Amino acid sequence: MSIQESDLMQKLISLCKRRGFVFQSSEIYGGLKSCYDYGPLGIELKRNIMNEWWRSMVHERENIVGLDASIIMHPQVWQSSGHLSSFSDPLVDCLLCKERFRADKAPVVEVGSEVTYTDPKNKKKELKGVAERSYVCPVCGSPELSAERNFNLMFKSFMGSVDPMSQVADKLAGKSHNAQEIREVMEEELAKSTVYLRPETAQAMFVQFNNIQQSLSLKVPFGIAQMGKSFRNEVTVEHFIFRSCEFEQMEMEFFCEPGTQAKWLDYWKEERVNWYKSYANYPEKFTLRQHDDDELAHYADNCYDIEYEYPWGWDELEGVASRTDYDLKKHSEGSGTKLTYFDQQATNPETGKPGWRYTPFVIEPAAGATRATLVYLLDAYCEEKGVDAKGKEKSRVVLKLHPRLAPIKTAVLPLVKKDGMPEIARSIVDKFYKAGVMAKYDENTSIGKRYARHDEIGTPYCLTVDKQTLEDGTITIRDRDTTEQKRISVEDALSEVQARLQ
RNA sequence: GCGGGUGUAGCUCAGUGGUAGAGCGUCACGUUGCCAUCGUGAAUGUCGUGAGUUCGACUCUCAUCACCCGCUCCA
């Protein structure tokens, strides 16, 4: 198998639409930038990935519990977390070379000093000007710059049944104002009802630390896990569902004793990368990359990215960050509520006495559920060259999804639509329904086309009712990857598939 | 945000200043009966959207939206 990397995304996007995995949002209205809908098969795949994550992170562990928090939280949450201040960096456009940059990271000059810079249209030409601000364009050095505009990371909305714009209109009516005054009135009025869509699920797990720890009497180390939607106004959206403004996260905050964070970071980074590999056909396409110091977020003292080799190169899939005690401390300060843990067994390292109250340190494996969906689709996409029944060359498209991730686990197929075969097939598929194993009955067109279609959507097993079934009560089970079949009895069909899904 | 490309049937794509085609897929009937069977027949298009030029625009011009590639940016 060898697919041109450049074609892979295109083929996958096409398959996603054709077979009902992913559609563009609001397509009949021309689509909306970076928004996608998960179709009948896409939702199954994404949900399976998320369920597997939940199972391995929450259900299979003694000390990790779940949370499903409100997407809209008290606006002060984002003040305390730093999302309001550190993500509203002023952005400036260079009027000359069109570069967009952060004012606080641009080259510093003295206001009023004469600066020389190059003309982007004619590199040999030198221009002179006077700096009106304390910085110039980092690319061409020009002082000809647009106004500073705040970068808008979070999606804003307004809570309350009265439109705050009416209040603004009332205040401004009948007088003349300059831009600054209008802005101030608007900010003052809008602020009263402004709420934000969460840019990460993490904060709710810090904010509910006390409730969760106390209600379940949890002992450090313990973790809180959450899956759900998050929203960010990304500077650039790209690569299909890879980076979009609305996305889905699977995050876990692991609270541990100060001083043990390095050990736990090490543990979780290995756990997480191995989790991805266990469902993959190409585990070598997953790797860990430690962040350089200058890459670290304001809250982290160490961080590993789990990266995947996408068609466009290595890029992020999950971040495993050591967030120190930053978040709990910030929310403690912001809310005036103690977010600490008291360990009666431990010895206070400062006093040497038994009993230690401390702010736990946090290790956070933060995964993109939507990114994982893309990754497993890319990992599974496969074209196999072969010959058809008449010896003509053809290619078989197979999604080699891990059986537990596959949207449909089993297709139940009557070889032909007569002689009672549909009835037997339907009675088999009914047993699967009742056992909670995703199965589909399919009697369309020819048997060959049905196999091919199920290969293309990743169905790992096909059960076929044929003439022999009528005689001895056996059916065939076909393996997606090898296309090999073996005969089993109708009674064993469900348990056989269940065994293979383990 | 910048540069380049694309947008025509469900998918892949052809096409011409005179109101549109192929292959695949879909549906029906018949046939076949285990890997995209064969035959016959059928349905499906705001030619991304809006404006302009023109007697006439899918085709030319402009704007806009979306996607792809590259840069840039990104806690």
What does this structure look like?
This protein has helices spanning 5-18, 40-59, 75-81, 83-86, 164-172, 179-191, 202-207, 209-215, 261-278, 326-335, 369-380, 421-435, 447-456, 467-472, 493-501, and strands spanning 22-24, 36-38, 64-66, 90-93, 100-102, 114-119, 122-130, 149-150, 156-158, 194-196, 222-231, 246-256, 286-290, 302-310, 313-324, 341-347, 354-358, 361-368, 381-387, 393-399, 410-414, 439-441, 461-465, 474-479, 485-489. It contains 15 helices and 25 strands. With 502 residues, the protein is α+β, with helices and mostly antiparallel strands. The strands form eight sheets. The chain has a seven-stranded mixed β-sheet. A five-stranded mixed β-sheet has the order 22-21-23-24-25, with helices on both faces. The chain has a three-stranded antiparallel β-sheet with strand order 5-4-8, with no helix packed on it. The model has no long low-confidence stretch (mean pLDDT 89). The structure holds one RNA strand of 75 nucleotides.
